[in-house]
Amino acid sequence: MKKILLAAVVSLAALNSFAQAKDATIEVRGVAKIEREIESFQVDFAISEDYGEIEGRKSFEDLKNAFFAKAKAAGLEESRFKEDKMAFQALHLYREGSLYTLEARSEEELLKAAKLANNGAGVISITATRSKFKPLKDERKYVEAAFRDGKEKAAGIAKAIDKKLGAVLSVIDYTPLDESAEDNFYYKRVVDQHYYLSIKFALE
After folding, report:
1. Per-residue pLDDT for 71 more than 60?
2. Which secondary structure element, helix H or strand E, spans residue 28, and what is its range?
3. From CA 125, how far away is CA 174, in angstroms rounded?
4. Beta-strand relationship, 124-133 and 97-104
5. Of 56-60, 147-151, 184-188, which gets the smallest average pLDDT?
């Protein structure tokens, strides 16, 4: 009886080992660099009432008029600035003022706009900048490139453990949704972006 029981246990272990070997898989991440083109730059300006002494304090209207006069002299018309009073309230400055967003068409215009701020004086400040991207072109090529990258990685790992790469079992796209803009408190060049796929292969 003991011999029969031992034989059954050995057989069960062998079957389990065979099943595990048969179901062996490998999962890797495929990556492809995304080429993004910048369409424009958005700059947020907060204009708020002066902190100065009562006698020399400038009103919001005076500051706003001076700001747009300076902008016009730099070649940036007032009509290009979009006002957002609610966004200004979110800054919690507790003074009369408003927020204006300019969409600069080039880095040259971005630099001109940056010079409109008060360099920390507080009444006219840049609160945020964003880079607005053009839509992705031919997204399929990034999918294909990411899949090739993942397959090459998987094949290398399979070879290292003396296995052969089998069929694709699943593919999951982990790429973030296509964002039109990246928020930066201060403008900086956009870092590289990538397309990500998680790919599971069977091993033979």
Report:
1. yes
2. strand 25-34
3. 37
4. unpaired
5. 184-188
